[in-house]
From TrEMBL, chains A, B:
Organism, as annotated: Pachysolen tannophilus NRRL Y-2460
Domain Aminotransferase class I/classII large: 87-475
Domain of life: Eukaryota
Lineage: Eukaryota, Fungi, Dikarya, Ascomycota, Saccharomycotina
Pfam families the record matches: Aminotran_1_2
Protein name: Aminotransferase class I/classII large domain-containing protein
SUPFAM superfamilies: PLP-dependent transferases
Length: 491, 491
């Protein structure tokens, strides 16, 4: 175990960057600075040039609250509009228009960074002290920046066999080489034994390739499978990371959407309408890899997309200081700072809700809706003939917005290539006819290695407008499966 | 002249990218699609999950309008808040929260793109038809994306000897090699003769280097010099670009801030309070290189930073279709789409102001304030002893937010290295003591080639809060120059 910042894992490209092209002029001690200096330096338009005087943000009480704005009571604290003034008298908490619409810090605006530092410390405290947090332009941008951080051409990154495949383009863009690691569908995500086997036999299995620079994992509510790694598994994977000296990129967009088991909700053991305390909610979250990160090798990528809104294009990264510095140097030439309006919208709404606790209370409301929706979809799946005839196996997700349904082809009758085709072609046509869009397993697959498992589809509970639509769309899907099997049996 | 999209100028890196990793499944003709399909596909949270119900944006009448919000009359159209609803009934014009807070198109949201297409067509119509526009995360991000578009390692880019130096980091990041071209301080920006000489003697002057891939120029209100290239000069430079087959990156953050000559404003020949029609304003803008771009080699980078607000991190790029496609493929892995809140703020405010004409009317008001400020600063400069004693030469800018002041060192007494030192050290100390921050010429310089010209400072009229502060700060600056010369003469 080391207490360094693992600078040797930083790519040569990232390490070669520096923070600013402008020379830093400083005056020697004998020069007595004027007590009230004025600036004719940087080309920042004074906020008097901005066309906006103030912004009022009207909030909803809860997801899918259908109350019209005019019916809201003026005395309901959380419903009054959040006013974003041109200049605030609470600059430590509130991002005003003066700062929010101005050129600003690469790493993000201070009130939001301060909030995030406290939030991280409360919700998943890293196992070391001098970690840092930086805002970015959403998780997709965050993942790209982490690829840039680690990967020189020819470097290797380990990825889950089914994953958020757009990530692979960022790997390719850095000249990186992705190598897939199996998922354990019956277990809880990443297949530890396969990972260990790969690493211990690296030179034989991947002759000429260097050992991996980092592992990319979605450990909680994995996309697309919905699986969540238990803490014990994370500890074992982390030990491998230390032994073979690679970083861990923890992508966790779904972590706050923890879903209690379907049967517990059905039986009333878990009451969706019972109040949930913030502390209990936090306690039940799957622990981030950061909480066991004694050797500073974890980079956590977060996003406001799933619990606030995706269009913000706002997320954040937590990592050790050296990694964050390298990321900032990349931001400096690529994105610069994230959108000010996105930052003041998120920050000031969170402050209005009451800071950390108020924000977690909103997240609990979002999670409640996902629990209900998950049960609505599972109700429909379990009630279907497709399920009763064992044509499908349903994976009850631990977290997130996806339900994976495995299509039970007779594997003795078909080759992997054949049932891959059955899913992405024959079943696809049935869903077109029946009018339901789903994501077919092969589209989320890394590679051919995945073929033996790619007989599944991913269904989302996030996008339908209401519960009836979830039921109707799920019925269309199971009907498609039933028709597919009728067709298969005929031939 | 060619009518192709000059794909051969696209870097190998950019050309190798593709638009999506997801396989594009399509159904054959005999599959009859359901008339009302539902989606369980993409993981987009329904807008019912967003915590914001609506947003009201309160505008100001004009820059630095000090009217308080509560004094505004409800019947004043442009002062009523701009309401951004959850769902609009005018989706062609208005970006609502349903779309503005959702995952969205890489190139930007449709209402704003439509506006920009019309705006470009009216204000600086390109010389060919099938140009495209794409939104990005501010001009800094735009410049970085254009470097990626053109530059493979070892490729050459021409830059002005004094320039927006952060650009050079984006060049380096692509492995590009910047080569400086002189500015003609007595003329109107880029030194045509030097450019021509460099190109015609390329192999002798730069043995082993390939001919340049593109020229980076700030043709209007050049940063830092404030110089503006006349149309005739642009045409001559464009001819060289065609002859030597390179692209032109036109960076134009200041183009709308056209400044009539100081003396015309002083004499009343130009009346800052006289109404300016939108058509006259447009007619007097320096014409973009796009307007003469018959061979599709110009990439124009624009920003909302100077005429709306920098914190938006929102700008746009205009170029031919092939270039835009390559830029989109890069955005797809790096930034994704720009911030939705930034987009709906800009779009809906512009629509509220009345579209193109209303937006240009706002810009005219911004420009008016810059004209007044420019005159306030020149008043102070011309009234100074430093000016009267010929210690400084003032460049009256044609556009923008900067005034360049040349420090008239006795060039027979000092080497370029010495007066570079006098500016960035001795004068710098004087400004620290007198309490005024300025940008010293050497900080904006590309390189040693610039030394013979770097005896200047850049003053901005953008950031001071009011006119009195401009005067006071300018006086502190001229006092610093006077003290410097007293010191020089003593030694």
């Amino acid at each position: 175990m080391t207490t360094s910042d693992l600078e040797h894992l930083i790519s040569k490209r990232a390490a070669a960057r520096y923070s600013s092209h402008f020379s830093q002029n400083t005056a020697p001690a004998h020069i007595k600075a004027h007590p009230e200096p004025l600036s004719l330096g940087g080309g920042m338009p004074h906020y008097g040039f901005f066309p906006v005087e103030s912004i009022a943000v009207h909030l909803t009480d809860a997801p899918f609250s259908d109350k019209k704005l005019e019916t809201l009571k003026a005395d309901s604290k959380s419903k009054n509009p959040v006013i974003i003034p041109k200049v605030t008298d609470r600059p430590d908490d509130i991002i005003d228009l003066k700062n929010g619409l101005q050129y600003s810090y690469i790493q993000g605006l201070k009130p939001l960074l301060l909030f995030l530092k406290e939030f991280v410390q409360k919700v998943y405290p890293p196992a070391y002290n001098d970690w840092e947090v930086v805002l970015n332009n959403g998780a997709g941008n965050g993942l790209n920046k982490v690829c840039d951080l680690f990967l020189d051409p020819g470097d290797v990154v380990l990825v889950e066999e089914f994953t958020f495949t757009p990530f692979l383009q960022s790997v390719e863009n850095c000249g990186g080489i992705p190598i897939p690691i199996k998922l354990d569908f019956q277990g809880k995500g990443l297949d530890y034994n396969h990972l260990k086997y790969e690493l211990e036999n690296w030179e034989i299995l991947h002759p000429g390739l260097p050992l991996p620079k980092f592992l990319y994992t979605i450990p909680t509510g994995q996309n697309p499978t919905g699986l969540t790694q238990p803490l014990e598994l994370r500890k074992k994977i982390y030990k491998l990371a230390e032994k073979f000296d690679f970083g861990i990129l923890e992508d966790d967009p779904y972590g706050y959407l923890t879903l209690p088991p379907y049967k517990d909700v059905k039986s009333g053991k878990f009451d969706v309408d019972a109040p949930v305390t913030v502390d209990n909610f936090v306690k039940e979250l799957a622990p981030s890899y950061l909480t066991i990160d004694t050797s500073k090798r974890v980079v956590r990528v977060e996003t406001f997309s799933k619990v606030f809104a995706p269009g913000l294009r706002l997320g954040y990264i937590i990592a050790n200081k050296s990694f964050i510095k390298a990321i900032n140097n990349y931001s400096n030439i690529s994105t610069r700072s994230p959108s000010g309006p996105s930052q003041f919208l998120v920050n000031n709404v969170i402050q209005h809700l009451g800071g950390i606790d108020g924000w977690l209370e909103w997240i609990i409301k979002v999670r409640r809706e996902y629990i209900i929706r998950r049960n609505v979809m599972l109700d429909a799946l379990y009630a279907s003939d497709a399920y009763k005839k064992n044509l499908i196996t349903v994976i009850d997700p631990d977290a997130g917005m996806f339900i994976t349904v495995v299509i039970n082809y007779d594997k003795s009758k078909y080759t992997p290539a054949e049932y891959k085709q059955l899913t992405s072609k024959n079943l696809f046509y049935k869903t077109i006819e029946n009018g339901v869009a789903v994501v077919h397993g092969p589209n989320m697959a890394f590679d051919n290695l995945a073929d033996e498992h790619c007989n599944f589809v991913r269904l989302t509970i996030a996008s339908p407008p209401d519960h009836a639509t979830i039921t109707e769309a799920t019925n269309r899907f199971t009907k498609s499966v039933e028709e597919l099997f009728e067709e298969i049996e005929k031939t």
